[in-house]
Please model this.
Amino acid sequence: MDRTYWDKLAGVYDARVLNSLAADRSGVIGDAIDGLANRRRSCADFGCGTGHYLPALAKRFERVVGVDHSRKLLDAARKRIAKLANATVRQGDLARDRRTLEKPVDVGFCMNVLIMPDRNTRQSIGANLARWVKKGGRLLLLVPALESALYVNQRYVSWNVKRGVARSDAKQAGLHARADLLEGIVPLDGAPTKHYLAAETRWALGEWGFDVDSVQRVEYDWTTEFAKPPRWLREPYPWDWLVVARRRS
Model:
């Protein structure tokens, strides 16, 4: 999705795009941020959107910069951080602009940004993340879980069967016909979206020069998947993978 797409989405971004920090059922993301927090450290939010994470980061780090390629999303982010003296935003294409940051940061955040279906674009962003995070520094990465997408699809099929739909028909309404599961590409709101296996996050980050410290689930309510989920639809809940990784020295 290019810059024009996100510029057009800016007016409805907060309503259409999940605020993962607020939606996290168990506060896993907040705990991870606290674990990395240090008032002497610098940090960057790569693909910051309208800046949902920036106020929380500004409270915990010495210097915070939000980076995004959409000018209109950054306009909204500037309003969100208007009263924060230690937070700034700047425009940059994460895949193409190697000089987006003047110098590497201690901690990088990349929250549901590496979701484009094109592998070359993801590889370019990963290589740049390695440039922008100091050696020995940390990266906090949030990505959609392929395991969760398959699980949600199974629950969706079961839900339709409970409603009287034949299982063969319910399966046809599932994601398998529109997904490239081998590549982890699953439609999300109609757009092909990269999802990750837990083991795959270690492999990908290793290619980019990071060693993974931990991989955790970030669980969300069923309302993030279905407009009106039935009451019996409870845990396990859908989830993303949250990865903490160290930039190799």
